[in-house]
From TrEMBL:
PANTHER family: 23S RRNA-SPECIFIC ENDONUCLEASE VAPC20. InterPro entries: PIN-like_dom_sf, PIN_dom, VapC20-like. GO terms for biological process: rRNA catabolic process. It comes from Candidatus Woesebacteria bacterium RIFCSPLOWO2_01_FULL_44_14. The lineage of its organism: Bacteria, Candidatus Woeseibacteriota. This is PIN domain-containing protein. Residues 4-131 form the PIN domain. It comes from the Bacteria. One of its GO terms (molecular function) is RNA endonuclease activity. It holds the Pfam family PIN.
Amino acid sequence: MKNIFVDTGPFQALNDKNDQYRVRAINVFNKFQNHALNYHTTDYILDEVYTGLLIKSGYQAALHFEKFFSKANYNLVHITPELFSRTKEAFRRFNKDKKWSFTDCTSYVVMKELKIKTAFTFDNNFEQMGFEILT
C-alpha cells in the first residue's frame, strides 16, 4: 500500500462548499478512492483545518469536518516532543531562503520519519521539500 500525507488544503476543500480547490480535491479524492492507499496526517494539520473552517465557513462547517474525519480511516500522527524538536531544527535550516510555516515543517519531519513520498496538498512547499504531489 502506498502512503499518502494529507495536508490542510484538501481537508478544507472537501468540507467547504465555497473553497477554491473544492472541485480539484473531489476529483483527486474520487480518482484514488478505490486504490490501496494509507492516509496520514498530523494533529497540527487538524488544528489548521478546524480553525480555518471555523473562521471562514463557521461553526457548523467545523463540526461537519469533525464527523467527516471521525468516519475516515487516517493515521493521525501526534507531534511528540522529539518531533517538535526536529521540527524546530527543520524550520531554522530551511527558512533561510524559504517561507515554510511551522506546520509545514512538522509535515516535512513526519513524512521523512514515516518515509512518505507523496502528499495530497495544494501547497507548492511540498514540491520544494522534494515530495511528489498527488494529482
